[in-house]
Automatic annotation (TrEMBL):
EC number(s) per entry: 4.3.1.3
One record GO biological process: L-histidine catabolic process to glutamate and formamide
Source taxon at top rank: Bacteria
Pathway(s) served: Amino-acid degradation; L-histidine degradation into L-glutamate; N-formimidoyl-L-glutamate from L-histidine: step 1/3
Species of origin: Antricoccus suffuscus
Family per record: Belongs to the PAL/histidase family.
The name this protein goes by in its record: Histidine ammonia-lyase
Length: 519
């Protein structure tokens, strides 16, 4: 895999992909090209498929029906209709449109498998996916339809349908229109499927894997944001950073825990607020509540869960998922590599970790608002308590989200409903796990943003004592983003959305990292 950058265009030579490359194409619109080696591999495997086309022996996907109909032999003059019918019949999705970035990731990952030369498609079929990505023509894919076994059949079928010039797409301007019209405008000729090609375009775990890649990219940012908001909460609640000491953390050598604790130490370094209650007799508390003291343990466990998920994603990104596959020695063999269990499990695991990360964030926020626990701050951080409600209802919003995140943490991958006349009698539901994970990430981002804005107000209220350089930079950035400091009640929903955008853009992390390096 080579990446070359020219001006604002990133050209990705398709092969084994990295998470960053998936995100670059899916989210940032990077261009896609096939390498010479991939073209050679594609053409080599296509030759094998064509040699089987006239064989009197049945070969699955080449001269047979599909699924429970795999025993039916299809004569040569009906095989194009077989492939076309496969795509049309499997494009059975329903519901709302799936996000453009998800569909682009799905198409890129299918193209990556085609480029391995293990699927038997023609060069022009693979090139069609590159052309659609480069022209920002995004097939209309729908929320419901995938069982996560035999791959993400329905979503991938809608992509293949668009490549045939049928169905609908979303163009680069976000306009939904007929595929044939958008392809013609871009100068892209629809493809006509030949033996094996329809099956090769739909038999992959690309949708759930694409969403896993995007989720890991988002969580890389959010787990650091969680460390920042936790540091601000410890500081604003006059907590202690002594528990984050490296030698104490080393007593339990969990990798993620050490990283989060290191962040907390760096973020709190030089805080006048922290120093104000370090002197003998200045602080009568023996130890802080769990939501403060155990932040590295919880945040670190999330980091370790992400590390496991990243390993699974890496193995999947290096895979050629299709059924049947063309082997290196020229055989065409059926297999079960399309089963989404490895991805489905980690998607569910991440949803569990997210729910707990949001839960501890909400608990830290709530401590600021209760005079029995806030150590001298006004009730609800209100300017004039009674007249003003302060941030009372911001915590309600957090609580509502955290409650939903707990429901979203219920695993999808433990469910299975048999399909295809019991031929496909155990499925992964990995697509469903991925869809709920995306919603969970959005909820986590909002919960952390509310903690950040609450802690920032508390730090302002500790004046004339000053926070650490890193946390002060985050507060300043939040104010520059339009989230106002202490004062009379105002339209709180608007402030929350500005805080969410501040976190989503990565600006909060950048503000802190400009003062001190973070993991």
């Amino acid at each position: 895999m080579n990446i070359s950058t020219s001006a604002s265009v990133v050209t990705i030579d398709v092969g084994p992909l990295s998470i960053d490359q998936v995100v670059a194409v899916a989210r940032d619109g990077a261009k896609v090209s096939l390498s010479d080696a991939s073209v050679e591999a594609i053409e080599r495997s296509r030759g094998i498929i064509e040699s089987l086309a006239n064989d009197t022996e049945p070969h699955y996907g080449v001269s047979t029906g599909f699924g429970a109909l795999a025993t039916k032999f299809i004569p040569a003059d009906r095989r194009r209709q077989l492939q076309l019918g496969l795509i049309r019949s499997h494009a059975a999705g329903s519901g709302a449109l799936v996000e453009t970035e998800v569909v682009r990731a799905l198409m890129l990952l299918r193209l990556s498998t085609l480029a391995t030369g293990r699927t038997g498609v023609r060069r022009e079929t693979a090139q069609m996916y590159a052309d659609m990505l480069n022209a920002h023509i995004t097939p209309a894919v729908y929320e419901y339809g995938s069982l996560g076994c035999s791959g993400d059949l329905a979503p991938l079928a809608h992509c293949a349908l668009a490549a045939l010039g049928e169905g609908e797409v979303v163009d680069e301007h976000g306009v939904r229109r007929p595929s044939a019209e958008a392809l013609a405008e871009a100068g892209v000729q629809p493809i006509t499927l030949q033996e094996k090609e329809g099956l090769a375009l739909i038999n992959g775990t690309d949708g759930m894997l694409g969403m896993l890649c995007l989720a890991l990219k988002d969580l890389d940012r959010l787990v650091t944001t969680a460390d920042i908001s936790a540091a601000m909460s410890v500081e604003g609640q006059l907590g202690t950073d002594a528990v984050f000491a490296a030698d104490l953390q080393a007593l339990r050598p969990q990798v993620g825990q050490a990283l989060s604790a290191s962040n907390l130490r760096a973020l709190l370094d030089g805080s006048a607020i922290m120093q104000s209650h370090r002197e003998p007799g200045a602080c009568t508390r023996v130890q802080d509540a769990y939501s403060l003291r155990c932040s590295p343990q919880v945040h670190g466990a999330v980091r370790d869960t992400m590390s496991h998920a990243r390993n699974v994603a890496g193995a999947e990104l290096a895979s050629a998922v299709d059924n049947p596959v063309v082997t290196l020695d020229g055989r065409v063999e059926s297999n079960g590599n399309f089963h989404g269990a490895p991805i489905g499990y980690v998607l569910d695991f991440l949803a569990i970790a997210i729910a707990d990360l949001a839960s501890i964030s909400e608990r830290r926020t709530d401590r600021f608002l209760d005079t029995a626990r806030s150590h001298g701050l006004n009730p609800f951080l209100a300017d004039d308590p009674g007249v003003d409600s302060g941030l009372m209802i911001a915590q309600y919003t957090q609580a509502s989200i955290v409650s939903e995140l707990k429901r979203l943490a219920v695993p999808a991958s433990v469910d299975s409903i048999p399909s295809s006349a019991m031929q496909e009698d155990h499925v992964s539901m990995g697509w469903n796990a991925a869809r709920k994970l995306r919603r969970a990430i959005d909820g986590l981002q909002r919960v952390l943003s509310i903690e950040l804005m609450t802690a920032a107000r508390a730090l302002d209220l500790r004046t004339p004592l000053t926070p650490a350089g890193a946390t002060a930079a985050v507060v300043q950035g939040l104010r520059e983003a339009g989230v106002q400091g202490p004062g009379p009640d105002r339209f709180l929903g608007a402030d929350i959305e500005r805080a969410v955008q501040y976190v989503a853009s990565g600006a909060a992390n950048q503000a802190a990292a400009a003062i001190t390096p973070l993991n």
